[in-house]
Each structure stands twice: as C-alpha cells, then as structure tokens.
Specification:
- This protein is of the alpha+beta class.
- The chain folds into 2 domains: 269 residues, 3-Layer(bba) Sandwich (FAD/NAD(P)-binding domain); 155 residues, Succinate dehydrogenase/fumarate reductase flavoprotein, catalytic domain (Flavocytochrome C3, Chain A, domain 1).
- Helices cover 28% and strands 23% of the residues.
- The strands form 6 sheets. Strands 1, 2, 6, 7, 8, 9, 22 and 23 form an 8-stranded mixed sheet that branches. Strands 12, 14, 15, 16, 17 and 20 form a 6-stranded mixed sheet that branches.
- It is elongated.
- Its cofactor is FAD.
- This is Tricarballylate dehydrogenase.
- It comes from Noviherbaspirillum denitrificans.
- Pfam families: FAD_binding_2.
C-alpha cells in the first residue's frame, strides 16, 4: 500500500527531527514526521534533556560572561581526545550562538542556568520546563504550521536507488517523498546489538548490566539498515554517552534524576574495593559522561561512590538515599565489599591527600601525591562520619556509531553525498563526538544538524519537483 507523497519525510520524533521538520516547513515544503513512539512517549531522548551548550562572545540573554569559539572547541577537543571532525565541530559551535531566537519563535522558553554544583552558568542555556517542554513546544509549532505527524509509526526499511531516497516502509505501507531526513536515534535500547558491541567477560555479557537512561524506542533499526545498504558509517559501536547512574534506576527512561553527582567529592571503588580512575580530573559537567564507560569496564559493571559528611550539601541530592554508616568498616559490610581491601584503599587515599584550599567551584589545589590513580582536585580525606555510598551502573543515553555526513548533513555512499537523503541527531553525532561528552553538546549537535538537514531536504525536494515537471 502506497501513501500519498510529500516533499520532505522526517523519520524520528526528537529534537533533531522536529528542528528538521520545522525548517523544511518554513522553507515551503510539505512535511510528514513519523514518530515510532506513541504520543505520550514522543520526543525520544530529547524529553530527558535540560539545556544546550552555546558559544557567545559576551553576555547574551540567559548566558553570562563569554564562551568563545576557541574555548568551546578546546573543551570538545579535550573530551573527545581529538576524535572529532573539526570542520563539522566548528560548524556546530558557531551555529550554537544563533539558534536561540529561532527556538523562541517556535515556543521554547529559557531560564537562567543553574549555578553552584553544576558549573554551567556561563556555557549552557537551560530550557524552561526542561526537554519535555521543548519537545511539546516544537510539536505545537509543527502542528500549527501544517506538518503531518504520525505516532506509532516505526519505519523498518528504506528504499534507495543508487544513493537516492525513494520511499520508507512501515510494514506493508510504503511512504514516498522527494527527500528524507533520518533522525531516528541510535541503538542504545537494542540489547542484542549492545551485546554484540561489548562482548563477554568471564562468560558474561557486559551489556546485560547496562541501564538505559533514555527512550526504549531507539532500537537502531534504520541505522543498521542504512549501514547494510552501503551508507558510510562513522564511530565505534562501544562509544556512547554513558553515565554512572544509581543501580536502582529503572531499565528505561530514568533520565536525569538517576544521576549521582558526588563522584568528584569522594572516591569510586569497584566491587573488589579498589579505586580505578581519577575522580577529580576535571569539572563534573566535563567528566560525568565518562563514568558509565569506566564502570562498564570494571568487574560486574558496578562501582561504588564513597563520600563522608563533608560532601553533603555540595552536590545535587540524588533521588534515592545512599547507604549510610557510622564507620567505614560498617559501610564496607553493608555494600558486600571485602572489608580489609576496602579499608586499605581508603587508608592509602587518606594518607596521600594533600589538602590545600578546598573549592569545588574551581580546579583547586587539594590533590593526592604518590597514589595511582591520582585524585587531581578536591581530594579530602574520608574521615568524618557518617559515611555514605551509592552503587552505580552504566546508564546508556545514546550511542555514537552513526552515518557519515558533510556540512549539508547529507548521507554518504562510497564517499559521495546523497542528493536527497539527510541525517541529524544521534544518527550522526559520532561525526562530532568520537568519544567523551561535555554537558549540553548533544542538543547542540541535534539542533544544528536538524536545522541544516531540514533546509537542505526542502531544497532537494524543490529540485525534485522541478525535475519532475521538466
């Protein structure tokens, strides 16, 4: 069964897809958006977001001070260890300085950014009401502009003709369009694909201990089908936005509230009672998204954040209370850790601490000496009862394996850009994020390339209409 053709078909229902649909419609194209989820779960991972990272050369509305291009680039370069396309990264950075007025036009409202524990008052613009409010605003705007929206519409196949989009399939239904934007997310909810990527350790599938912070609907069906069809891929399937989250979090859609933000204020140990990484390497917004991957590499894919009473009040309180004990040996016993090993780890850490002037808002001079791994900043001895612990597991938000693009967001086949098939959001984020993460950059990538993809798809549809009429 064939459905009526539109100019631009957008596959996906989150931020990138909505930006593409709105831009294409503003350019005069007829647009249909296909969201795999039911209406009440629409928006994908974007519903769980709160902000986007923005370049600015001086104070701008809700942004204070300045965050120039070069500093933004250096931040991105550091977290990705250089695994990024500089041209596309800088395009994203520059676009982040001019998108907010367009977002406001479509109903998005901003609030003064949080300060204190999150340290993002200068770099990130926060959405009033969070990501759910942003998604709802975009859907209202899309409906008002005449975008056709279909829910419960999971596309399972794409028809191509030598790199040109022809149609999308939902079961037996065939939907044609002059151009198409793919923005259907990664494969973080596909347990079998995660198993394949991460493999086994000691006969156990590593990915079986992963929790999914985001939507259960991102199965990677389109991503896999495009790669199988010869689209150029980019990225490592094990690289992802992966946060160490409360081990008691739900399997899906736990979102931001499952985070535990006290890691930098204490020590992190594995189930053998050993530390395994520098907890004070850098500010938490620049490092929180590496800890899921770090925990994933530890035995049983679990870690324990250990703090004492001096840390209380210095981080966002978690939703779930931690394990509490009046002594460290009692804490170890409650966690099921080897008491002797755990106490040795704490004693070695405490003895290595060189306490200067503690200040969690700067990269302070409280550090360890002669300890491996070191703690570079905010190193205070664990010596003040009561003591607290939080069991943490890898929480996967989105995956970085994606489709290679150029500055026009075009999908590539054998190095050649498609004339009418474009991609945005998680399905191409690996072009900019080869590894690592810094707070808010995912929404920046989605907004930038969603807008580019929508604009280019409208142009491609216009060319197709002219060609058909000739």
């Amino acid at each position: 069964m064939d459905s009526g053709a539109v100019d631009v078909l957008v596959i996906g229902g989150g931020n990138a897809a909505l930006c593409a649909a709105l831009m294409a419609r503003e350019a005069g194209a007829s647009v249909m958006l296909l969201e795999a989820a039911p209406r009440e779960w629409r928006g994908g991972n974007s519903s769980h977001t709160r902000n986007l990272r923005c370049m600015h050369d001086g104070p701008q509305d809700v942004l204070v001070d300045s965050y120039p291009e070069e500093e933004y680039w250096q931040d991105l370069l550091k977290v990705t260890s250089g695994i990024t396309d500089e041209k596309l990264a800088r395009l994203t950075i520059r676009a982040s300085s001019t998108c907010r007025d367009w977002m406001r036009k479509h109903g998005v409202r901003f609030q003064p950014p949080l300060s204190g524990a999150l340290h993002v008052a200068r770099t990130n613009a926060f959405f009033m009401g969070g990501g759910k409010a942003l998604v709802n605003a975009y859907y209202r705007s899309a409906e008002r502009l005449g975008v056709q929206i279909r829910y419960n519409a999971p596309v399972d196949a794409i028809e191509l003709d030598d790199g040109r989009f022809v149609a999308a399939r939902i079961g037996t239904e065939r939907i044609t369009a002059r151009s198409c934007v793919l923005a259907a997310g990664g494969f973080e909810s596909n347990r079998e694909w995660l198993r394949e990527a991460w493999g086994q350790v000691n006969g156990e599938w590593v990915a079986d201990n992963f929790l999914i912070r985001g939507t259960r609907f991102n199965m990677g069906v389109l991503l896999k089908s495009m790669i199988d069809a010869g689209a150029d891929a980019i990225g490592d399937p094990t690289q992802c936005h992966s946060v160490a989250i409360d081990a008691r979090a739900p399997l899906y859609d736990g979102g931001i509230c499952t985070r535990v933000d006290c890691v930098s204020l204490g020590i992190m140990v594995n189930r053998n009672g050993h530390r395994f990484y520098d907890e004070g390497e850098d500010f938490w917004p620049k490092r929180y998204a590496i800890w899921g991957r770090l925990v994933a590499q530890e035995p049983g894919q679990i870690g324990y954040s250990i703090i004492d009473s001096k840390a209380i009040g210095r981080f966002m309180p978690p939703v779930f209370p931690g394990v509490k004990a009046q002594t460290l040996p009692e804490l170890a016993r409650q966690l099921g850790l080897n008491e002797t090993t755990f106490m040795r780890t704490v004693a070695e850490y405490n003895a290595a601490c060189r306490v200067g002037t503690f200040d969690h808002s700067v990269l302070d001079d409280c550090h360890t000496e002669g300890l491996t791994p070191p703690k570079t900043h905010w190193a205070l001895p664990l010596d003040t009862a009561p003591f607290y612990a939080y069991a943490l597991r890898p929480g996967i938000t989105f995956t970085y394996l994606g489709l290679k693009v150029n500055e026009n967001a075009a999908v590539h086949f054998g190095g050649q850009p498609s004339p009418n098939l474009f991609v945005a959001g998680e399905m191409m984020a690996g072009n900019v994020l080869g590894k690592g993460y810094t707070a808010g950059v995912g929404m920046t990538i989605g907004t930038t390339f969603g807008r580019i993809a929508g604009k280019q798809a409208a142009k491609a549809a216009q060319r197709g209409a002219i060609h058909a009429a000739a």
